[in-house]
Every structure is written in structure tokens, then in C-alpha cells.
Amino acid sequence: MISESKAKYALHRAIKDCDIKKVKYLINNRPLSKLVKVVQNYC
After folding, report:
1. 6-30 burial by CB neighbour count: b if 16+ within 10 A, else e?
2. Residues 10 and 2 sit within 8 Å (Cβ to Cβ)
3. DSSP 17
4. CA 22 to the chain's CA centroid
5. What is the pTM assigned to this prediction?
């Protein structure tokens, strides 16, 4: 499994690059609690 910091970076890059497929993949393959923390950083 990918580390939390690498997962956050991957999601950040996917959002920045407008890579919708990768964003969906990362969201669907992460625990909800961790995803909420990442999404809060973008709000």
C-alpha cells in the first residue's frame, strides 16, 4: 500500500493536472477518513 504522504501528493498532482480518471481512482481506493483530511486541504 502507498504511504499517506505519497497518496496525498499523488492526489494533489492529479487534481492540479486535471487528471479526472486518476482523481477518481485515488478517491475510490482510499479510506474515507484519510480522504476527508486530504479534501479539506483543498477547501
Report:
1. ebbebbeebbeeeeeeebeebeeeb
2. yes
3. T
4. 9
5. 0.55
pLDDT, tens digit only, all 43 positions of the chain: 567 777 778 888 888 888 888 888 877 776 655 666 666 666 4
- The domain segmentation of the chain, as residue ranges, is 4-40
Dihedral sign of CA atoms 9, 22, 28, 1 in order: negative
Task: Say if residue 35 is exposed, middle or buried (CB neighbours under 10 Å; 0-12, 13-18, 19+).
Answer: middle
**Quick count: other Cβ atoms within 10 Å of Cβ 4?**
13
Provide the residue type at 22 as one letter.
K
